[in-house]
Amino acid sequence: MAEFLPRFSLLKLGLRVLGPRSPVQRRHAHGHASFGLLFDIDGVLLRGRTPIPAAKQCFRNLVDKNGKYKVPVVFVTNAGNSLRQSKAEQLSHLLEVEVSPEQVMLSHSPLKIFTQFHNMCVLVSGQGPVLEVANNLGFQKVITIDMLREAHPLLDVVDHNRRPKDIIPPTKDLPPIEAVILFGEPIRWETNLQLITDVLLTNGRPGNPMTNPYPHIPVLACNMDLLWMAEAKNPRFGHGMFLVCLESMYKKITGHELKYEALIGKPSVVTYNYAELLVRQQAENLGWSEPVRRLYAIGDNPMADIYGANLYNRYLQASHRARLQLQARGGGDPVPFSGQDVPLRSSFSDDRLPEACISILVCTGVYSREQQDLLNDHEHVVAEHGHRDFLFDHNLTQASFVVQDVREAVEQVFKQEGCELS
C-alpha cells in the first residue's frame, strides 16, 4: 500500500461519472457472484439504537444456514465515537447475524495508514473512548480535550459553573501539540471550539499568548456529515456542522481559511478506497479466487453515501482508462488522477480493482421522496449540505437506484447480478 499523500482535498474532478440508473445487468455462470456490498448504518439499518424493520429480514437472507455471508459485506459508517469491536457487537446484537470487527469501517479507520502523524503529539476531539480509539489507530502521544482543560483551567470559561473558584489552580506542563485530530461531534461544542482554536492560534502551545501562525499545525477531520438520522422525525446535526462552526470561527478571528491536512469519511475517495480493500479481505475469507468486480453502496444521504459512491466510481473509471492507456503504450508513467483526494495506493496497474461502484439510495433516513422535487428545483440547497472543500456536482448526488428500504436495495442488487438471494 502506497504512502498516503496529505493535503488532497481541493482539486476538482474533470471526469464524467458513470450515468445514474444505467448499470448493466450481469449473469453469472455456475451462480458465482462477483460483487460486494457496502452498507451505511444510521438511516439504512438503524434509527438510533432501533433496527429498521427491513434490516433484520435483509440480513437473514444474506447469510446461509451456517451464518456465512453469501457475498462480501462491509459496514461503512461516518460514525467515529466508538471502537470497531463495539460497533460490530452492537450490529451483531441488533441485526441477529454475526458481524466481525473486520467488516466494520468507521470514519476514522483510514487513519491507521497515516503513519507520518502517529509519533506526533496530537489533540483529539470527539466523544466516547477517544483516547483508546486514537491508541488503537496507532497514535502514541495523545492529549484529549479534558486533559487540556485540566492542564489550563483558565481557558474554558463559557460555562460560569466550570470556571475556577477563588484560588486559581496552577497550569500543568503539556508537550507542544503538533496536530489536531477531529474524530466526531463532541458533547460540549463551546469547550471544544474554544480550545481547538487556542491550539491553532498558538502553534500548539495554548497556554501562551496568541501568535496566529499561518499555515497552522495540521488538522485531520473525520466525518463531514452535516446531518444524520436518529429516532427523531427530522435529521440531527452531525460532525460536519461542528466543522462549519470551527471553520467560520477560525476565519472570523484570523481572516484565513482553516486548512485540513486530510478529510476522511464519506464522501471522500480515500474512504471508499479503504472500504474496497476490506471487501477484498472479506472475499478472500469466503474463499473467492476471482476478484470482486462491482461494489454496491447502499445509503440514505445523497451528499455523503451517494456522492461518495459516485465519486469513487469516477476514480475507478479513471484508473481503468489509465491502465488501458499504459497497456497501449507498452508501459511508462501513468496518467495522473486529478480528484478530490489522492487514493490510498497506486492502482493504475491493479487489475483487481472493481469495474464500478454503484450507488443505491434508500428512503428510511436523511432522504425522503417527498423532498425530491424541492431538491431538484433548488440545487443550491443540496450544495450547501456538502462540505466546503468538496466542490458541488449535482450529478454525483444522483443514485443509480432509489428504493424504499435496505431489503428492497439488496433484492435489487441480486436481481441486477442475476443471482439467487434466498
Q: What does this 3D model show about the protein?
A:
- This protein is of the alpha/beta class and 422 residues long.
- The protein is 32% helix and 13% strand.
- It contains eleven helices and 15 strands.
- It has a six-stranded parallel β-sheet with strand order 5-4-1-13-14-15, sandwiched between helices. Strands 7-6-8-9-12 form a five-stranded parallel β-sheet, sandwiched between helices.
- α1 runs parallel beside α11, α5 (189-201) crosses α6 (239-254) and α7 crosses α8 (302-329).
- Residues 1-24, 27-31 and 337-342 have low confidence and may be disordered.
Main features:
single chain; 422 residues; alpha/beta; six-stranded parallel beta sheet; five-stranded parallel beta sheet; 32% helix; globular; disordered N terminus
